[in-house]
UniProtKB/TrEMBL annotation:
Record protein name field: ABC transporter ATP-binding protein
Gene Ontology MF: a single term: ATP binding
Record-linked PANTHER family: ABC TRANSPORTER ATP-BINDING PROTEIN MG467-RELATED, LIPOPROTEIN-RELEASING SYSTEM ATP-BINDING PROTEIN LOLD
Domain ABC transporter: 18-245
Pfam families hit by this protein: ABC_tran
Family listed: Belongs to the ABC transporter superfamily.
Keyword vocabulary terms for this entry: ATP-binding, Nucleotide-binding, Transport
């Protein structure tokens, strides 16, 4: 049975890898102001797999983009270990994204004129301590598709190339925005298996945005957003593997 208990830090993992401290985000839309996030605080620990759950418009992507240094909050602070990334400046943010963060989006964002291997090489060439691109593609089960172009790959395979590209630089934090949103049920599960393997095999702290409550059962913790606020944080007891999930 799946039981959730209230949030407690993992034993021995009391220093968060990343901490979001009272962030709010407002967008000016002509005369109007849209509030995407309201006083959100959260902590993410090394090696965790955290699911960010919430209905459309609840602020999930905004939070993920701020965590990854793609966007900045209107107020509040974000710390990566003891470094305040909200005070980093453009150059510091670029280095943070390049070295420490891997992104996986719903639509794979591969370069169509480059092979799977070349798409991954784009990242490994600029990272300071990457794995070999072949190794990254092997990790996602695509060691035999190195020279395929995106159009010669299925949606699930393209998403696995995108995951290989994101993890090849050995980021400490992998941020995934609806990674199975464009995939059918079975293919989605294969992609979730790859994310689990990366999380467990490499110890990469992983955040996964989803609308799908069932996917939260493969997480260590679930953070639920509602109208831009954290509605609930729960630890998953009786974690399931993606193969055991159904929806
Ligand atoms: N660039 C922007 N300009 C104006 N408003 C924005 C912008 N980005 C997001 N918003 C608004 O902020 C709120 C939160 O958006 P966000 O994309 O973070 O939600 P979400 O939970 O990820 O939704 P979805 O599941 O549909 O992707 C929404 O009301 C959205 O319309």
């Amino acid at each position: 049975m799946h039981i959730l208990t209230h949030d407690e830090p993992e034993p021995g993992a009391d220093t968060p890898l990343l901490r979001v401290d009272d962030i709010s985000k407002e967008y000016a839309m002509g005369e109007m102001t849209v509030t995407a996030l309201r006083h959100v605080s959260a902590e993410f620990y090394r090696g965790e797999l955290v699911v960010l759950l919430g209905t459309s418009g609840s602020g999930k992507s905004t939070l993920l983009n701020i965590i990854g240094g793609l966007d900045s909050p209107s107020s509040g602070r974000v710390f990566f270990r003891d470094r305040e990334i909200t005070a980093a400046g453009e150059e510091g943010l670029t280095a943070f994204r390049r070295e420490s963060i891997g992104f996986v989006f719903q639509f794979y964002n591969l370069i169509s004129s480059l092979t799977a291997l070349e798409n991954v090489q784009l990242v490994t060439e600029i990272a300071s301590n990457p794995m070999r691109p072949e190794e990254a593609l092997d990790l996602v089960g695509l060691g035999d598709r190195l020279n395929h172009f995106p159009a010669q790959l299925s949606g699930g395979e393209q998403q696995r190339v995108a995951i290989a590209r994101a993890v090849a630089k050995k980021p400490e934090l992998l941020l995934c925005d609806e990674p199975t949103g464009a995939l059918d049920y079975e293919t989605g599960k294969v992609v979730l298996e790859v994310l689990k393997d990366v999380n467990e095999g490499l110890g990469t702290t992983t955040l996964v945005i989803t609308h799908n409550v069932s996917i939260s059962r493969m997480s260590d913790r679930v953070i639920r957003l509602r109208s831009g606020s954290v509605a609930d944080v729960e630890r998953t007891v009786g974690k399931l593997s993606p193969a055991q999930l159904s929806w």
